[in-house]
């Protein structure tokens, strides 16, 4: 089974991204013709919704800011309700290159067994691979390395970038995450991996390139990076202490 772009939903959580959302949506539509672009306005107070619609995206609006996890859960529900077998999470600030999407989706295709090969349900677009010049320093870098080491051992798969927000999800992942996706801080990365693993999803990663923000304000500074370190450890502990998900992944 293959997944043409016409069956792919690009989900872009967006919070106050009026400066860049239109150009990012246009680039995604031009690079991935046929794919459907869904912007989830995560309680923005600016003109994010108007700019996204003008650029050709479908838009859902949350009444207040829930964070990436809450926005993505709504995106998964939209994908399942509207019959999309693949949902790809993409940043709305232009840091993710939409040209990498077909390679991520292709690994999901293999998981459907058109050639008898056993593939995966979630493909993580991993930074810090050969050829990628994206750098993270200080506490944030230490936290990322620690989390990747612990989660790789626990999940029995090599994941070098467990906080990546660039991921492709197949049908079983959409079915699970439409109901079980965590909305807490860092839940969309660390906890989602643990929930998926415990529910039987299969994971893999693929190297991607990261770009500079196309505009707007970066979400991280030295203080936020230090806070991130503490929250990352806390999120990891909570993820493993939570009960196993009630939702099965068999289709």
Automatic annotation (TrEMBL):
Residues 10-142 form the Glycosyltransferase 2-like domain. It comes from the Bacteria. GO terms for molecular function: transferase activity. CDD domains: DPM_DPG-synthase_like. Keywords: Transferase. InterPro entries: Glyco_trans_2-like (IPR001173), Glycosyltransferase_2 (IPR050256), Nucleotide-diphossugar_trans (IPR029044). Pfam families: Glycos_transf_2 (PF00535). SUPFAM superfamilies: Nucleotide-diphospho-sugar transferases. The keyword Transferase applies. PANTHER family: RFBJ PROTEIN, UNDECAPRENYL-PHOSPHATE 4-DEOXY-4-FORMAMIDO-L-ARABINOSE TRANSFERASE-RELATED. Belongs to the glycosyltransferase 2 family. This is Glycosyltransferase family 2 protein. It comes from Leucobacter viscericola. The lineage of its organism: Bacteria, Bacillati, Actinomycetota, Actinomycetes, Micrococcales.
């Amino acid at each position: 089974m293959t997944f043409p772009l016409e069956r792919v939903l690009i989900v872009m959580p967006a919070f106050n991204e009026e400066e860049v959302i239109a150009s990012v949506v246009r680039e995604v539509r031009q690079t991935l013709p046929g794919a459907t672009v869904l912007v989830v306005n995560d309680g923005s107070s600016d003109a994010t919704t108007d700019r996204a619609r003008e650029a050709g995206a479908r838009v859902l609006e949350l009444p207040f800011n829930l964070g990436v996890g809450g926005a993505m859960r709504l995106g998964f529900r939209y994908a399942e309700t509207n019959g999309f077998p693949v949902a790809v999470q993409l940043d709305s600030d232009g840091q993710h290159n939409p040209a990498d999407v077909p390679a991520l989706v292709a690994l999901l295709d293999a998981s459907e067994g058109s050639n008898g090969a056993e593939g995966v349900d979630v493909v993580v677009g991993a930074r810090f691979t050969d050829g990628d010049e994206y750098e993270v320093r200080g506490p944030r870098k230490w936290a990322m390395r620690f989390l990747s080491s612990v989660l790789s051992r626990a999940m029995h798969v090599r994941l070098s970038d467990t906080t990546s927000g660039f991921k492709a999800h197949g049908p079983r992942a959409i079915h699970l995450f439409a109901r079980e996706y965590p909305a807490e801080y860092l839940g969309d990365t660390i906890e989602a991996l643990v929930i998926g693993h415990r529910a039987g999803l299969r994971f893999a990663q693929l190297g991607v390139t990261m770009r500079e923000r196309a505009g707007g304000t970066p979400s991280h500074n030295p203080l936020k990076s230090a806070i991130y370190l503490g929250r990352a450890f806390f999120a990891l502990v909570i993820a493993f202490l939570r009960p196993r998900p009630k939702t099965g992944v068999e289709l």
